Amino acid sequence: MERTFVMVKPDGVQRGLAGEIISRFERRGLKLVALKMLQIDRDLAERHYREHRDKPFFENLVKYITSGPVVAMVLEGPNVIATVRDMLGATQPAKALAGTIRGTYAVDVGRNIVHGSDSPESAAREIGLFFAESELLTWDRALETWIYES
Ligand code: DAT
Ligand code: MG
């Protein structure tokens, strides 16, 4: 069983797309196990994006991600990391396939509206940055057998 960290970034929240984005994951059949709204401070931003700290776009990235509220969530299910990454579309929205979230709602890499973990290691690290263990719920979904064969 996999978990992934997903976040509607400040532009997604400002544009009123948080519900639409969460809804896409729900309708796909992915299971939400944690959800909250928060405003990221500089320290959390730098930790979340530490792999990019030496990139030329890092300062703008930190400014952007701390510029307003985000909606953070954890989704759980088999292969959920790759499934979510496919649903997000390419980092550069101009290259994102039509129908993906970025390919539907975004055009600029600096305003690409959504984040999703790229590996099991990043997922574990990012979930730990944003959520306490007690905020990750274990719950039985009544529709489970209509979404996964076994
Ligand atoms: P992703 O968000 O698809 O995992 P990433 O981890 O490579 O992409 O980069 C993190 C964020 O940094 C990305 O969502 C937007 C920004 N970013 C990445 N590459 C960039 C670039 N070349 N110019 C400006 N911003 C960039
Ligand atoms: Mg990334």
Summarize the structure.
The protein has about 150 residues and is α+β, with helices and mostly antiparallel strands.
Structure description:
- The protein has 150 residues and is α+β, with helices and mostly antiparallel strands.
- 40% of the residues lie in helices and 17% in strands.
- It has eight helices and four strands, in the order βααβααβααβαα.
- It has a four-stranded antiparallel sheet with strand order 2-3-1-4.
- The two termini are 13 Å apart.
- The mean pLDDT is 98.
- The structure holds 2'-deoxyadenosine-5'-diphosphate and magnesium ion.
- The site of 2'-deoxyadenosine-5'-diphosphate has 9 residues, from loops.
Helix and strand arrangement:
Layout: E1 2-8, H1 10-14, H2 18-28, E2 31-38, H3 42-48, H4 58-65, E3 70-77, H5 80-88, H6 101-105, E4 114-116, H7 120-130, H8 144-147
Antiparallel strand pairs: 1-3, 1-4, 2-3
